[in-house]
Amino acid sequence: MIRIIALLLAAVLTTAAAHANPRIKDIADVEGVRDNQLVGYGLVVGLDGTGDTLRNTAFTRQSLNSMLERFNVNVREADLRTGNVAAVIVTAELPPFSMQGTRIDVTVSALGDSDSLQGGVLVATPLMDAAGNVYAVSQGSIAVGGFAAEGDAASITRGVPTTGRIANGALIERELNFDMSGAQAIRLALRNPDFTTARRMAEAINAFLGGRVAEALNPSVVTVSLPAQYGSGIVGMISDIEQLRVQADMRARVVIDEATGTIVMGENVRVSTVAIAQGNLTITVSETPQVVQPGAFAPEGEAVVVPRTEVTVDEGMSQLGLIEETVSLRELVDGLNALGVSPRDMITILQTIKAAGALQAEIEVL
């Protein structure tokens, strides 16, 4: 009975460890199946006096004149003073295999000196790729999450009122020319290139498909050929292999953001046995000026301010701490936390350990 329980426990732990590994779908992309960035320039109308100042934003005034001329309204010589129009940049992500007539979300951002886009309506705006090809047209009412209000003596702003979104605000007018129905092979691009991960991915695919159809070309690319006897086609093969789980490997790395004091350490970071002493130096300067006045019966004189400065230095008491050679990330974290230092002091300690050659990892400072 005990043996059966032990076998069941081992099976559960093995299954849990297998499911802890990421899927191929989560660590690699199929080459060619990608989003495309679109951008456009347009006008937002209907603002309640929170639009661009036409005297200060020449591009808004010129765009407004051009738009009105398309409706046979000539205002070239007029002194426009409306505050209900704002020039904006419209951005969107065109998903792969998007069909003509479907809709996507867009983000609208003010370009001039407008105060808020609340209540505005985006006029029909073409959205283009980097080559200038129009793939969608955007138009609609803008939803703004932030707001701004002000009075004579106070003002309040929450969020960013000059940026908003239009749900399903762009209509796709042109499809991307990418057809993979007749493809006989695909290329998987790893999001975090690594030799070991690429090899494990190829081995997992070969074991599933039953042949040498996958090969790791480099740390970033794994090629997969469609087996001749595979009846589901290229799409079915991708659907099957992207669910396979692979143990992703990673380099030992410590990433430090000195601006915020953030430290992120990878699983494989190790430290050799070192002794560390970290002390704090505190210097306090206090000013207590005193006023010296002449005597009560002095024939003449004036009050004089005499400075009094006191400087104290506290070097702090710090003992030499020992960090044993670690075999896991948890042991390393426990050893560093035992020093009782702040995150910013921890950054200095890690850099010093690296300089001493005891940190078996790469340090990257953002």
Automatic annotation (TrEMBL):
HAMAP family: FlgI (MF_00416). The keyword Magnesium does not apply. NCBIfam families: PRK05303.1. Assembles around the rod to form the L-ring and probably protects the motor/basal body from shearing forces during rotation. Belongs to the FlgI family. GO terms for cellular component: bacterial-type flagellum basal body, distal rod, P ring; outer membrane-bounded periplasmic space. Keywords: Bacterial flagellum, Cell projection, Cilium, Flagellum, Periplasm, Signal. PANTHER family: FLAGELLAR P-RING PERIPLASMIC PROTEIN FLGI, FLAGELLAR P-RING PROTEIN. The keyword Signal applies. The basal body constitutes a major portion of the flagellar organelle and consists of four rings (L,P,S, and M) mounted on a central rod. This is Flagellar P-ring protein. The gene is flgI. InterPro entries: Flag_FlgI. Residues 1-20 form the signal peptide. GO terms for molecular function: structural molecule activity. It holds the Pfam family FlgI. GO terms for biological process: bacterial-type flagellum-dependent cell motility.
